[in-house]
Amino acid sequence: MTRESSKKRPLRILIGKPGLDGHDRGVKVIARALRDAGCEVVYTGLHQTPEAVVATAIQEDVDAIGLSILSGAHNFLFQRIHELLKEKGATDIMVFGGGIIPEEDMPKLKKAGVAKVFLPGATTEEVVQWVKNNIKAGG
Amino acid sequence: MKNKFTTISSVPIKPLYKPEDIKTLNYDRDLNDPGHFPFTRGIHETMYRGRLWTMRLFSGFGTPEETNKRFKFLLEHGQTGLSVAFDFPTLMGIDADQERAAGEVGKCGVNISTLQDMEILFDGIPLDKVTTSMTINGPAAVLLAMYLVVAEKQKVPWSQVGGTVQNDVLKEFIAQNSYAFPPDPSMRVVVDMIEFCTKEVPKWNTVSISGYHIREAGSTAVQELAFTLADGIAYVQACVERGMKVDDFAPRLSFFFDAHNDFFEEIAKFRAARRMWAKIMKERFGTTNSRSTMLRFHTQTAGCSLTAQQPYNNVVRTTIQALAAVMGGTQSLHTNAWDETLALPTEQAAMTALRTQQIIANESGVINTADPLAGSYFVEALTDQMEKEAYAYIEKIDKMGGMVQAVKAGYPQRETADASYRYQQQIDSKEKIIVGVNEFKTGKEPPMETLKISDSIHTFQTKKIAAVKKKRNPHKVSDTLSALKTAAKGGKNIMPPLCDCVRAYCTLNEMMETLKGVFGEYHDPGIF
Fold this sequence. Notes:
The complex is a heterodimer. By secondary structure, chain A is an alpha/beta fold. Helix content of chain A is 42%, strand content 19%. Chain A starts with a helix and ends in a 5-residue tail after the last helix. Chain A has six helices and five strands. Chain A has a five-stranded parallel β-sheet, with helices on both faces. The relative contact order of chain A is 0.20. Chain B has a five-stranded parallel β-sheet with strand order 1-10-9-8-7. In chain B, β2, α2 and β3 form a beta-alpha-beta unit. In chain B, α5 packs across α20 (495-503), α9 (221-242) crosses α15 (377-399) and α11 runs parallel beside α13 (313-327). Chain A binds chain B through residues 15, 19-25, 27-29, 31-33, 41, 43-47, 49, 71-73, 75-77, 80, 100, 102-104, 119-121, 123-125, and chain B through 88-89, 91-92, 94, 100-104, 107-108, 176-178, 216-218, 304, 307-309, 341-344, 417, 420-421, 424-425, 427-428, 434, 437-438, 447, 450, 453, 455, 523-526, 528.
């Protein structure tokens, strides 16, 4: 794909719910907001294994993965997804996320390749703007 | 100056309510005294003068050993009932030693994989003296069997055992998403449990028909009311189709609602719920037994209303919500702790939540008389309006063939997601103000002390499972599991064989996999 044509393609974002967490209010709002902002959104649905998230991301050729985790398992799950992306040579896919995540876990998540974490109270506009400013289509 | 005045659910409110707003109100027909049909004013004649609500704080984290300590702490400080929060592996029917449980063991609640864990959880807590509520749905039958076997080991007869399993699978498909089997076999298991408890555990509340999760998933107050009652109708209908008599099981159905920030809307919701259920039971199911027509309910203050910003403000939100629940006539109440947007509560935060209820009960004076807001032009008009709007939803669901069909069609799921998206847009545009979030913000806040759940719990629980598996009799395990499979396939009640599996120390996973082998497994369709 040439640079020219990649610019025209809309951003493709995988929105995922890894782990056993069933809280999907936030993730659905974000998926809709990104779609309404012109992104192509692939939503995994609930209860995905890290392996399934990464496989879908590669198969769907997405530009970024946004993960929602409200179960306290964020350290494990982000790390595992980062490892799998590395194994598959797919670290060009940017990872961001949101959920109930304590401030003190941020350095750990940064290390695990998480580009941005949105905390409770973030607006959909903030998420959309960040995605538009930081993720490149066909990256 | 604000130009739009609505409830938090976007219901327009008039500047003034007058006698003409309630001119069709007939006291005997629409309200009546507390303790009398249609119970709009409460289910007991004396309400809180006779007995306060049960102060029941939902708790559970880490290992059964740690949670057992927290339970004893809460009981020592005047809590009157237990309420168990399970971790996600337990909620999904997965043992701690399974790959899918990695990173999740003990994080959001207590981990229970075998009967041994349950024995530890209730060690030193006599099951004939406390009642226990267990928030469990997909694997509810297994956890109930475990609880009953613990009672058996404590030599407490099942006739003395009281408590609740949430066991409301329909709202799992709508909102909470901790399901196991597809909708039809899920309903069959619920009916098995109701049938079993009606005969064997008569003081057990078999289903806690829950609007809480629907509301937390973003529904409006009216949707919460309508979908919850429609779920209730579906359970009663399914039991009647099994051949059970309404008055044998209906008195043991209870309800569970959210108490959100909009004070009067919530009070009107609780009052409307009681009146509607009473009429539904009488008109649809032909019962006049007052125990069957009485809507008893537990309330939890709205977790989704709490903010991570300026978290101490959450104590105030919780107080307003708890007060609405009490003014609405709740039978039991959980108050959230102020730090719950960040983590599970610390002991100190949980204590403040309990104290909030004790202050309402002992200092505010609101308990002195039953249903103090009755007759208010506004509250009565709002109660009527919510009832009307909720019936419109129920009629629509009836036309779809009832809630099981509506759930399969994704109808309540979509309605809830639409409402939740609208609400978020209203917050983003500041049409709705959330203090500390989109208005009245302060700068950087100091970090807070939150409860940490150690990753070592995973290893600890995994080792215990291995030890249990080594000690148990493998023949008993395979025999009881195969008897369970036969019952599930053949349509016999699964509760007696499940109790046998538990006695043989089969694990949660083994029992759930056996059942999934027969019933199949439900997967999220991922609609947004």
